[in-house]
Design a protein that fits this description.
This protein is of the alpha/beta class and 205 residues long. The protein has a single domain (2-166), classed as HUPs (Rossmann fold, 3-Layer(aba) Sandwich), CATH 3.40.50.620. The chain has helices spanning 16-28, 53-64, 85-96, 108-112, 120-126, 139-146, 149-152, 169-177, 188-197; strands at 2-9, 33-38, 70-72, 100-107, 128-133, 158-162. Helix 3 runs parallel beside helix 5. The termini are far apart.
Length: 205
């Protein structure tokens, strides 16, 4: 049976922190494949600027180009309406017809909000979770969530990995808007693309 890691997110933009999480998950859980799933219309990101979905897809594609067993999916980009993880994993389960164990790779912030998601208990039945902790992670919040009876039933499907790299997409966007590209946090191809497309308020002046 294949072990497939699904890295979802807005990737707004994709940065080296995302890649560090994926590498750690792939190594520790012996994942055969990594699939990036950029969200189309994320329901939890309505209060902040999100770059056009085709630009976010392209930036992910640029980063993983040439990497064996890495791919990027349009499953959420091409679906109308909001992007819900439970719908995505239901589709992926059908696609692989039970021949794969799916692992949802995410950050601590995401697991801490999971009870606000659409049909979270259904999602627990569709995949296991690899949760990346980083400096400043709210471990106490997650521990409270794990004590919630419906979640506690599935606590053995939640696995933690430690990633030292702590990069904020919000801070990256803020720097770019001031024409200060934080090059140490992003792949050079992504930087070139942001400059070319003038994303996140970049002017090049």
């Amino acid at each position: 049976m294949q072990r497939i890691g699904i890295m979802g997110g807005t990737f707004n933009p994709i940065h080296k922190g995302h890649m560090a999480i994926v590498r750690a998950a792939k190594k520790q859980f012996r994942l055969n494949r990594i699939i990036f799933v950029p969200s189309g219309a994320p329901p939890h990101k309505t209060s902040e600027y999100v770059a056009p979905k085709e630009d976010r897809f392209k930036m992910v594609d640029l980063v993983i180009a040439g990497k064996k067993n890495y791919s990027v999916s349009r499953v959420e980009l091409d679906r109308p309406g909001y992007s819900y993880a439970v719908d995505t994993f239901a589709e992926l389960k059908k696609e692989y017809k039970g021949d794969a164990q799916l692992y949802y790779i995410m950050g601590m912030d995401s697991i801490n909000e999971i009870l606000t998601w659409k049909k979270p208990m259904e999602l627990f039945k569709l995949c296991q979770f690899i949760v990346a902790t980083r400096p400043g992670s709210k471990i106490r919040t997650m521990r409270r969530i794990l004590k919630f009876p419906p979640v506690r039933m599935h606590s053995d499907t939640i696995h933690l990995i430690e990633v030292k790299m702590n990069i904020s997409s919000t801070e990256i966007r803020g720097s770019i808007s001031k024409d200060r590209i934080p090059s140490r946090y992003m792949d050079r191809h992504v930087i070139e693309y942001i400059k070319e497309k003038k994303l996140y308020g970049y002017t090049g002046v």
